[in-house]
Specification:
Blueprint lengths: L17 H30 L4 H25 L5 H21 L3 H26 L7 H26 L3 H14 L1 H5 L24 H18 L2 H8 L4 H22 L7 H22 L3 H28 L6 H27 L4 H13 L1 H15 L1 E2 L2 E2 L6
Length: about 400
């Protein structure tokens, strides 16, 4: 069956249309369900007898499935439309939350984490590639998706805390219902064709190209932050004897800060993205490390979480945007999938490394080590982004298709 290509400027984002609204609505609902699970799953595991090291392994298992799924998405999106991945993600997340809500036995509980990882990969890669189709700069459309998802991630933990104060399994079953609701906006997305790579495609791995490599390192920081926020941050707050409601509120503080940063970077031009990427990684790392040290004091922990959220919100929007703008419009899906693979790898390494640390040291030390991992790519990201600027970055993004 022949592939039908669309004009590169067939989609406009200046005036919100049905497709843009569907993308935003789907991100809100899906992220809300995911945010609920990020609080309810580790708390339910703790109260069901799993120790902190086992929780880290379960979260790492989810990251492995996400990483494997993202590795294949560059090729899969040349065969299947991006909206189908968004739809599949909603159904997979619903199944994951429902399974965990019904039982915490090891096998099905592990399966729930595996399904969540695949759902994350499908949704974020599918939704992000959907909104950057065309020759416009990617920062604005990606900011819309990330701002919407940050709103959902803000509401999710708070909702999980409110419902989880009575029953954590009910909180997960509610999250499953929300995930099913995300199928509706997925079905309203434009039916865009699969990507069709250009004939003059530059040889070599796409993640090694200037711009894409910067986005990949940004993904490392963003993935490590998200992995710890969904695993050992709630564990540290639980160890400090905060209630489920307080923990939900504190995690929502981080997600609110992420929302603010995601919205702010949408208006940025590309001239200073190297500094924003470096500052974002440092802020996310320092804030995460601070949570472990300040967990006993709710106000101080909230400030540390806010700092980490601001940094993470900036890098998770700018990273994929820089990578997407650095390639041909028909390679944008592959570039975003590459940044997502790096993010998923960090989502695996951070909780797994923290799980190893907590076997010999307190959770606070594990978060400090994790914070260092989050901040470390700032050094590389700054240098890599400067290379893009030196080559030449315009108002509408990078034009690096001829760079070897």
């Amino acid at each position: 069956m022949p592939v039908i290509r669309i004009p590169t400027r067939s989609r406009q984002f200046g005036v919100p249309g049905r497709d843009t609204m569907a993308s935003a609505a789907g991100a809100v609902v899906f992220a809300c369900s995911l945010g609920m699970a990020s609080v309810a799953l580790p708390l339910l595991a703790l109260r069901s007898g799993y120790d902190p090291a086992q929780i880290g392994l379960l979260v790492a298992l989810s990251a492995v499935s996400q990483f494997c799924a993202r590795l294949g998405m560059g090729a899969w999106m040349r065969r299947y439309p991006d909206w189908t991945f968004v739809l599949a993600a909603a159904m997979l997340l619903a199944a994951s939350n429902a399974i965990a809500g019904f039982t915490t036995q090891l096998a099905p509980f592990a399966l729930a984490h595996l399904l969540q990882g695949v759902a994350r990969a499908f949704f974020w890669t599918g939704s992000q590639t959907h909104v950057v189709r065309g020759d416009h700069a990617a920062v604005g459309p990606l900011a819309v998706v990330n701002l919407s998802s940050a709103g959902g991630l803000l509401l999710g933990p708070l909702t999980a805390g409110l419902i989880g104060a009575r029953s954590l399994p009910v909180a997960l079953l509610t999250a499953a219902g929300l995930a099913l609701l995300a199928c509706v906006p997925a079905l309203l997305l434009d039916r865009l064709p699969p990507f069709f790579p250009p004939h003059d495609r530059i040889p070599g791995r796409i993640w090694r190209r200037p711009g894409v490599d910067a986005g990949c390192w940004a993904g490392v920081s963003a993935g490590a932050w998200r992995g710890l926020l969904g695993s050992y941050v709630p564990v540290a707050l639980e160890a400090a004897r905060h209630t489920a409601l307080t923990i939900g509120i504190l995690v929502s503080v981080a997600n609110f800060a992420q929302l603010v940063a995601s919205g702010a970077v949408g208006a940025l031009r590309t001239a200073r993205l190297d500094r924003v990427l470096a500052a974002g990684a440092l802020a996310a790392g320092m804030g995460t490390a601070g949570v472990g040290l300040l967990a006993d004091e709710a106000v101080l922990a909230a400030l540390a979480l806010a700092l980490s959220g601001l940094g993470a919100g900036a890098i998770q929007t700018i990273g994929p945007a820089v990578a997407s703008d650095a390639v041909h419009p028909e390679e944008r899906g592959e570039a975003i999938a590459a940044t997502g693979a790096f993010r998923a790898a960090a989502l695996f390494v951070a909780p797994l490394g923290a799980a190893a640390v907590v076997t010999v040291a307190p959770v606070a030390i594990a978060l400090t080590v994790g914070g260092a991992l989050i901040a470390a790519p700032a050094v590389f990201t700054r240098n890599l982004a400067r290379r893009i600027r030196d080559i030449g970055v315009g108002e509408r993004g990078c034009d690096l298709k001829s760079v070897p």
